[in-house]
Amino acid sequence: MAFKDLPADARPREKLIARGAGALGDAELLALLLRTGLPGKNVLVLAAEVLAHFGGIAGLLHAQPDDLKPIKGLGGTAKRAELVAVLELARRAMAQQLRERAVFDSPDAVGQYLQLHLAARSHEIFAVLFLDAQHRLIVLEELFRGTLTQTSVYPREVVVRALHHHAAAVVLAHNHPSGGVEPSRADEALTQTLKTALALVDVRVLDHVIVGAGKTLSMAQRGLI
């Protein structure tokens, strides 16, 4: 069943035009992207089932293209491509915001940006936000993957990339695939090691952000930097 087959007051498109996007629920917004349902299942029901499968809109946006393929109703290339495009647009919008103002003028945007990049990964990723002298984003780079320790993250490589980008400061970040965001002793030791190494080339470590499913933790706010 497509939108045209729904009652007029239940059509997300008309509701959005009349009342604004904020008036729509997550399933209604997703239904606008999906456009059509399946035989015997209208598009709103399909959207609600997809959200339930991924644990909500955040889980869906963190899904990789291959995660979408087995879901009945999302197997088509066009629908999967549209959902992935929405995610990429969100990333680019947040990156633009962070390039235009100091990262700590918009801490929520930093957390959301890192969520979109790291939260869904099934293995640990260590990334660095390289910042200019005004603490605006130059670039985010994923530098290491796997279990993060002082021996698996090479300070020399982080220093080399900071010099390459002419960075004045950095925000370190990594994800916890388990979902928790509490820093471990290894996280604290790694942060101090990198802080010392980067100080030798006059690059400040402003924060180390730990990313979990739907949440982030700032080690700077914990007094651990």
UniProtKB/TrEMBL annotation:
Q: What's this protein's name?
A: DNA repair protein RadC
Keyword Metal-binding found: yes
Residues in domain MPN? 103-225
**Which NCBIfam families does the UniProt record give?**
PRK00024.1 (NF000642), radc (TIGR00608)
Q: Which domain of life is it from?
A: Bacteria
Family, as annotated: Belongs to the UPF0758 family.
Task: Identify the keywords attached in UniProt to this record, alphabetized.
Answer: Hydrolase, Metal-binding, Metalloprotease, Protease, Zinc
Q: Does the keyword Iron apply?
A: no
Recorded hits in SUPFAM superfamilies, A to Z, give: RuvA domain 2-like (SSF47781)
Q: What's one Pfam family here?
A: UPF0758_N
PANTHER family in the cross-refs: DNA REPAIR PROTEIN RADC (PTHR30471), UPF0758 PROTEIN YEES-RELATED (PTHR30471:SF3)
